[in-house]
Amino acid sequence: MKFGNLQYIHLFWLIPAIMLFYAWVFRRKRRTLEAFAEAHLIPILTSSVSAFKQKVKALLTVLAIFFLILALIGPKWGFRWQEVKRRGVDILVAIDTSRSMLTADVKPNRLERAKLAVKDLLNLLKGDRVGLIAFAGTAFVQCPLTLDYGACALSLNRINTAVIPRGGTNIADAIQTAMEAFGTSGDNDKALIIITDGESHEGDAVAAAKELEDANIKIFCVGIGTKTGELIKITDDGGSPAFLKDRRGQVVKSKLDEVALQKIALTTGGSYVKAAGANFGLDVIYEEKIAEMDKTALESQMQKRYEDRFQIPLLAAFILIVTEVCIGDRRRQVNELV
Hints:
This protein is α/β, with parallel strands linked by helices. Helix 1 runs antiparallel to helix 3, helix 6 (171-182) runs parallel beside helix 7 and helix 7 (205-214) runs parallel beside helix 8. Helix content is 38%, strand content 23%. The strands form 4 sheets. The chain has a 6-stranded mixed sheet with strand order 5-4-3-6-7-12, sandwiched between helices. It has helices at residues 14-36, 42-45, 51-72, 110-124, 149-157, 171-182, 205-214, 258-267, 282-288, 311-326; strands at 2-3, 75-88, 90-96, 129-135, 139-146, 190-196, 217-223, 230-231, 233-235, 241-243, 253-254, 271-274, 296-308. The protein has 10 helices and 13 strands.
């Protein structure tokens, strides 16, 4: 047996509570009678009332509530096999892991905020395949396209600025890696989400984006950071906090380059959003853009469909309530002929 609404199972605590309540009520009635009349007069005063019937009515009420709760949690048994097809869009999320993503102009820093937003995105997906790409000076597939969102979340947790030894920010390489990861299978639309501060130091990202447009792949860019920028906090060799410096010994200040990201997105007919505070923008991209793209069947499998049986305890509860109402609490009067 399975249950469809286990969140209501705690309501079964009502059963012992109601039983205790009835026990208290019957005891209270007894004490009230004892306070009102002598003990030998109580049977005479209550001769027209059946204590047994009162207890039966209480029991019927408790059982009715039990079956109502059972119906509410949705018991299921018996099943049939049904073919289930999942339709969706292929989505790759490319996350910038260069050290500029350690900048704390977005709390706690750009990279950690991006990872939190991607986790929220995973909760929105509805049958879409999703994968992860980490990129800095080069790019690689952190998690291939999958319907296993839990596995994708585990891969996301392992992303940090040390996963790619080569420094820099090569958005063009991330785009080319995405094209290879998408492959040529499937006729559905595909989406590449790039989360970065836009400071691309290598490759021609716009030219790479043009290749994705020809392959019917849309790019959606999320710019993270501020235009004024901030110094990049790192940990030096001695384990002490420090600021990142260039080869000339000057501290590096990372700024958001929105113009470059807008060009990349518009090349493929995608869009650009700026991550601002709690409104990161991934939910808007998915719900207003990606969810409206052409979908295809990504998976077909046979699944057990358990039959709902809530009607049975619901009917039992109804019968018990009607029975309780029909039972009076008065004794049968037997007339004796003298």
